[in-house]
Each structure stands twice: as structure tokens, then as C-alpha cells.
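Please review this one:
***
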Amino acid sequence: MSLFSKNQFVLWPKSKTVEVYSNRKDQNTASFDLNLLKEQTDQDLQSLSFYLKKNKIKNVSVLLSDDLVVIRSFVYDSKISSIEKKELLSLSQAFINFPMEEDSLEYELVNDASKTTIRTTIYDLSKIKILKSNLARLKLKTSSFLPASVALCSLINSFYKQEYFLIFPQGTKHYLLVLAKGKDVYLSTCLKGDPLDIQKTVNYSNLYFSTVTKKIFLPRDNAPEIISTTKMEKTPFDQSQIAQNFHQAPNLPLPVLAIMVSPNDSNPDIINIMETENNNQSNSPPKKKNILPLIAVFVLTSALASVLIWYVLNRSDSTSSDQPESALAPTSVLEPTSVPLPTLAPIDKDLKISVLNATDINGQAGAFKAKLTELGFTDVAVGNSKESLTSNIIKTKKETLATFSAYFKDKLSDYFPADYQDSLEADSTYDLVFIVGTNLSQPSPSPSPVLEESNE
């Protein structure tokens, strides 16, 4: 993996956008509605080209999403010293959905006492060639082309060396599942949906390692429900907090962060903090329910009932002496009716969103974009506002104001209190515009731990 020592720039092309990240303290991220995996005209590339020239970006490291690069491992029940690529191509056909040739494939042999594991990496060369062509037209030099799964595991290796699974969110109900040991990836696959059935993949781990792998890293926010008959040891991770632990900007995704940090920046404190917190939670005695309030309510209710019965009986005696029985009409008892609790209406996570920084604090829009990404939103552009504000504003279209305000007040009220305005035109390019006017780096009222582990 190529790493930089001074100015570092990472370009991450995706199917609908291309994102550029840097290790600068200000304006460290930009997003463009551009698909570099398809042939583009000079006019199409103009906005990205202008940004690169303005920021004097000439050399980048390129992240490849794992739909362009697939990693699989095969096992031989004997030691081998070589294997033909044609045989590996034949083995790989079952799970590759793009054309393959011998140049598409790289492999490594891993021998132990009784078997050989072949770790194979297969590239979608047709799309990568188009990508390289577009980068050349942008006059960009590339330091490396790195699969996102490999970058992720090189970062995990800085604080965890054993076998593990990792689930990384890639969009609304889209996830990357990786099986690795330290920095070495044995399997990567893109999954869709929620919940995710991972039992079949869990069983594969027993082929590569001596036992079934049970450790799994999951995003703390927006984590999918997983289905597995194997009892997994779950470790939630917080991307922004891990970035801060490495003294990097909190809005850097983990694969990008892996390129920004040095391979010598080992940070075992992350896993130590996690294990300490979970031990404290697991060793603490179960909380006993305080039944004193229930007893008090019962005693008070009984006393009121006794007074009411005494009053009714005495009133009945006095009334019966003055009035005939027919004059005493029975009273009806009204049954309490249950009021349904309001439910939060779901909203489309493919909304087109703009985040604008209206403060003099650099990186605010990028930090808030990371928060929206954690909630599952995938189409988020960032920039600077023309006006300077001291409060947050959320602009919507008139017909969606009620739905969006209810949703974001529930999800972001503590992190992003805002004034809601229905000032977007019906034909506006964006469905939502967030204008950041406050300092988002201030600590939240109840900060969450970096990593917290629970066994299910």
C-alpha cells in the first residue's frame, strides 16, 4: 500500500459520484456527481479538473470499491508450490459477475502443516481501464490502486491481529463483508438488505483457520441485524472516534483513514478501551428493579378506594331513606381508552442533499455529511454557504416539511438543532439543504464510547 508523507490526497470513484479527501486541516473533502468508471467528455470532467488545479492536486491514491475488486480464497488439502491462473479463473467463475482474463487475477499461496490456502484477488479490468483513462485526462498521477477491503484491514491490523469479520456500510442497506486475519483479507463480498444472513460465510472461515471465526466488527450507528446460528462476538466501531484517536479529521471514512495514517501508527488503546468497557459491563451485577414506587402506588390506591367505598355506602344509606329505590340510577364505569403512540414516518435515503458551511470553522460540512452517511443517506454534496450564520437551518420543499422536520428532530436534535424552512422551490435540484451555522465539534451531552462489545 502506498502512503504519503506530506500532502495526501485520496480519490474514491463510485458508481454515481467521485469523492476526494485530503489530510489538510481545512476543506478536506469534496464530492462530485461524476462516474469515472464510464467514459467522460472533457466537459464532463471540467468541474473536477478545476477543483484539482485550484487545490494543486497532481498525485492521488485511488480507492477501489469492492464491486470492482473481489477477494476469494481457495483451499487445497495438501502443500502446493504453484498453480495455473487458468485453474483459478475456473474456480472463480461461480461468484464473479464481470469478464475475467488472466491479467485480471493476482494470488498468493499460504502454506501450513497440511494444506495450502490460495488468496486470490480478481479485478474488473474493463472498468479500471476506463478509470485510468479518465485519470490520465485529468493529468493525475496515481500512487496506488487499493481495494477498500484491503485498506480497512490494514487499519484494523493496527490494533487487532487475530481472525475477524468486518461489516462496513456502503450505502442504504448496502454493506461490505470482509473476513481477514490482521491485514490479510481472505474473503470480501458485497451484501444487500437487512437483516444479513452471514452463516454461510461464517462457515467458510473454518476452512481457512483452525476454528470458526466468531469476532465481528460492526458500525455502531446504522448497523444491520445479522442472522447467524454461530454465537458471534460483536464489536461496534465508531468511524469518527477512531479517526480522532489517530489525530485525523473525524469525517474521514475508515478506508481513507488507512491511507492517511502511517503503518507504524499502532493504536492498541482502541481495542484495550473496548475490552475494558465490556468487561465492566459484563461483570457488573444485574440491576434490581426498585419496587418501592409500585408499593407506594398500591398503598395510595387502596386508601383512596377505601374512602370512596365508605362514602358511597354511607351516601346510599342516607339516600335510600329519603328516596324510593327507583330513583337511584346506576352509574356507568368508563373504561380507559389507549391512545396510540405516534410513529416516525420513514423517509427515502436516496434523497439529494446539500450541506453548506456558513461558519468560519473549516470542515463543518464534511463532518455533518459523515453524520448523514451514518444515518444511511448516500447522495450528499458539500460546499460553503455565501452567507455567514450563527445558527443551523434546514431547508425543505413545502410538501415535505412536516415529514422531514419530524424525522430529523428525532435523529439529530441534540447534534444539530435547527430552524426548519419550507423555502426550497418544487423544482429545486436538492430535496434538502442543511446550512451549518454552529460549531459541530462541541461534545454532545452524552458521548458514546469509542468501541463497545457485546456477545449475542
Remarks:
- The two ends are 35 Å apart (CA to CA).
- Residues 352-436 form a domain with the Alpha-Beta Plaits fold (CATH 3.30.70.2390).
- The chain is about 30% helix and 25% strand.
